[in-house]
Amino acid sequence: MPFLGSFLSEEQFQCSICLDIFDNPVSTPCGHSFCMACIGHYWQGVKLCQCPLCKENFKKKPELHVNRTLREITEQFKQMKGDPGACGGNEWEGLQSSRMDERPLKQRQLSGDLLVEMKRRFLKPFHAKGECLNDSHTLVIERNDCESTQPQELVRSVSLRRYTLSGAANARKVPRCSKHHHKLELFCKSDGEFVCSECGETDHQSHQIISAEKEWLNSKTQIAITETQIQEMIEQRLSKVEEIKCSLTEIKVAAERETQGSIRVFGALLRSIERSQTELLEVIEMCRRSVEHQAEGMLRELDLEVTELRKRSAALAKLAKIDDCISGLRSYSDLNSPLPEKNWAGVSVKCDLETKAIYSSACQLLEHFREELQKLPEICLSTLTNQSPVKPQPKVKKIQDYAVDVILDPSTAHSRIILSDDKKKVWCGEKHQHVSNNPERFSRVVCALGQEGFTGGRHYWEVEVGDKTDWDLGVVSHSINKKGKITLSPSNGCWILSLRDKTSYAFRTEPSTPLPLSLKPQKIGVFVDYEKGQVSFYNVEANMHIYTFTDSFSEAIYPFFSPCTNKSGKNDGPLTITPVLVIH
After folding, report:
1. Half-sphere exposure of 260 (CA within 13 A, CB side)
2. How many whole angstroms separate alpha carbon 6 and alpha carbon 84?
3. 3-state DSSP assignment of residue 315
4. Is the N or C terminus of the chain more exposed, i.e. has fewer CB atoms within 10 Å?
């Protein structure tokens, strides 16, 4: 029913991994539910599957199926959330009044119609007190004013012969009391069992006793009401079936429309690309041929000049060997013609394929189709939304939307802790520093806290851990022991994720909860939901959920940062609080 939506909240339909409303919810064997994509991504590449919430291990990876009931409830919740005024005030008042009219009759109360029917079916006349004229038989008709009848009066009334709409009551075989051997004609509402008249006077004297037949009549009335409610539920579910079938039909039409649109767009894109490719190849070929033709002309001209120069060189060499000056001068005058004056030094063959314009045209074409492809899903989605009864849902916040600016508090830092000037980096130094011994400073644990604590709401921040071999991150309560040895566990007000020896990830409980991670995170996201008592850790770069611990907070909690000791330079890298990239 629409008015039931007021009793539901968004948190009841959120996946504890992505903190979004369920999308194709599935349930693990331990009973917890997650989005199918979230739990599949969480289990991807791991050897041992375990529940992200209770950490129950499964020897074999469970075969998960969509929880259809939860998905239907989630979809109904989305619809109610999108249209909260589905049931107006007048309709609710009418529904209440109709329910009031359908309330069952009170105990020991018969409806007026039933009384009229009993009078019609009995043939003998009645006197004023409702007794038959035949003294051996008495009809007992109990009305609303009989509610105060005592057990003795009931015994006296049922001792006489009674009639029902189907005939004499004593005509049927009535079970007898095993103790007194009287007929079980009374019903004790206090104990919920059938009794005889003598049991009513002895063992059930102070109990609420009613005639068994009257109780059965009241039960029949309640049965009729229940049947009416069942029929209403059947009608509601049949209506929902038709609604879902209509939605499936509309989705099928929208899918066909989008398929046709995508085929059209991609077909035009492929044809345009093929046409551009053909044009590009033609231009390249034409340019190549033009350059070849030009080069061939140059080569022919050069060959002619080389041949002519070689002939003249041979003739001059032969002339130089003549001793007769007269014949030599005559021959020299014939060979003394001007040499070719063309300067070939600046001549070259350049390859300008003139493809720049084609490439530019292709880029414009691709940009045009990119815009078309971006419009295509919006058009199809708009068409589907306009036709479907399912209304678009408001945007659900992601954990990045709860990002806070965490700054380290120098007054809490251990004497070996070094902070950057902007109080965003923390690492462990080689020696102890001269610092004041205030009550908030840690004396044994190499760590520091954030300046601002949380007493409610949701908060998220990210810490770059890099290639450090050891570190601790999380939140701690304000009353944590700062002057002695600390056991990092939820029972001591510490909710901490740790790394030891480069590969051993664990959540600090007693004993620690090992976390087998296939991907080594370089940046850790920490999310706190104070009201839910949840502390979650994420691999930011891989967009993977690591672990969520649920507890209850009773005081302010503070971000906790421990770079651990530097191990002679092997773990000297800092923990860096980085800005959160909010993706919409």
Report:
1. 7
2. 9
3. helix
4. C
Tokens 């190499």 sit on residue: 446
Token pair listed for 217: 């009549």
> CA torsion, points 84, 90, 96, 98, in degrees to nearest 10?
-120
For the segment 385-413, what is each residue's pLDDT rounded down to a tens digit?
A: 444 444 444 444 678 889 999 999 999 99
pTM: 0.37
Token pair, residue 303, equals 């060959």
Read off the tokens for 94.
């009418």
176: number of Cβ within 10 Å: 13
The Cα 290–Cα 139 span in angstroms is 124
* Residue 27, beta-bridge partner list: 33
8 Å CB contact between 527 and 460: yes
Residues 6+ apart with CB under 8 A from 404: 452, 459, 460, 461
Residue entry with tokens 């929902």: 240
Stated as kind and residue range, the H or E segment containing 289 is helix 212-319
For 165-221, how does the pLDDT look when each residue is reduced to its tens digit (9 = 90+)?
334 444 456 788 887 878 888 989 888 888 888 887 788 878 888 888 888 888 888
List Cα–Cα distances, 332 to 309, 310, 319, 321, in angstroms: 15, 16, 7, 12
> Could you tell me if 498 and 508 are in contact, meaning their C-beta atoms sit under 8 angstroms apart?
yes
3-state secondary structure of 448: strand
User: Backbone phi, then psi, for 364, in 5-degree steps?
Assistant: -65, -35
CA pseudo-torsion sign 122, 127, 133, 135:
positive
The separation between the first and the last C-alpha atoms of the chain, rounded to the nearest angstrom, is 34
Contact between 162 and 139 under an 8 Å Cβ cutoff? The reply is yes
* Order of all β-strands in the sheet with 186-188: 193-195, 186-188, 209-211
**Cis peptide leading into residue 377 (ω within 30°):** no
- Beta strands (DSSP E) in 111-238 are 163-164, 167-168, 186-188, 193-195, 209-211
Q: Quote the DSSP letter at residue 368.
A: H
